[in-house]
Amino acid sequence: MKQKFFAWCLFIIALVAATPTWAEQALVAVAANFIPPFREIAIEFEHSTGHQLQVAGGSSGTFYSQIKNGAPFDIFFSADAERPQLLENEGLGVKDTRVTYAIGRLVLWSPDADFIKGEETLRVNTIKRLAIANPKTAPYGLAATQTLQKLDLWERLQPHIVMGENIGQTMGFIESGNVQLGFVALSQVMNTKLKGQGSRWDVPTSLYEPIRQDVILLTKGKENHAAKALIEFMRSPQTKKIIERYGYELK
Q1: DSSP string covering 39-104
Q2: Which tops the pLDDT comparison, 17 or 126?
Q3: What is the pTM of this model?
Q4: Is 227 found in the same domain as 195?
Q5: How many domains does the chain have?
Q6: Which domain holds residue 72?
Q7: DSSP code, position 160
Q8: How far apart are CA 113 and CA 150, in angstroms?
């Protein structure tokens, strides 16, 4: 009986020792395009470190405004490089923590497997509604606008554009069937649910400025162990594999 009790005590001690006493929770703002891969990254991170993450998804511009107005985020994964740089300059981001975690790709996507035939799809007169994200707040929306301007199609297609607040809402318009097609992030159509479905055109990178996506540790999270560990975890091989699997390029 004593041996069993002793063995049980050793088990409890080992279990407690395996659970980090410094485990914390971080509140993370994630650009909508990066939500699909970040779900997987968060699971790996929590399993590996014992820390917990609370995740909010939305447009980079909206998050930037919220952070400036005191939103309690610890880390910001932006869909561009400009806003993290601004936050660092404004003293709201921790200096020397800003890194490029991914380079995004823009695609034109439709749930109809026979709809998109390439660039020429945008030139036909059968398009009734075309979804893009708001170029003022969403970098992928800006890339879509640049693409249409480069193709000399902006003026002709502008009356048909349905604008989402962020790239997640834009994808929702298309998936619902309310919009025929739209410009979204490659990562969104590479997720498990949609991979191989519909039709798409991978927009040549020569038609839009590079979508360099930066992450920065915010001043609120500078003493948060979970937040600092997540920044480091983004450099791990398993994280990089997940990012590449969703169609992103690495710097």
Answers
A1: HHHHHHHHHHH--EEEEEEE-HHHHHHHHHTT---SEEE-SSSHHHHHHHHTTSB-TT--EEEEEE
A2: 126
A3: 0.83
A4: no
A5: 2
A6: 2-103+211-245
A7: G
A8: 26
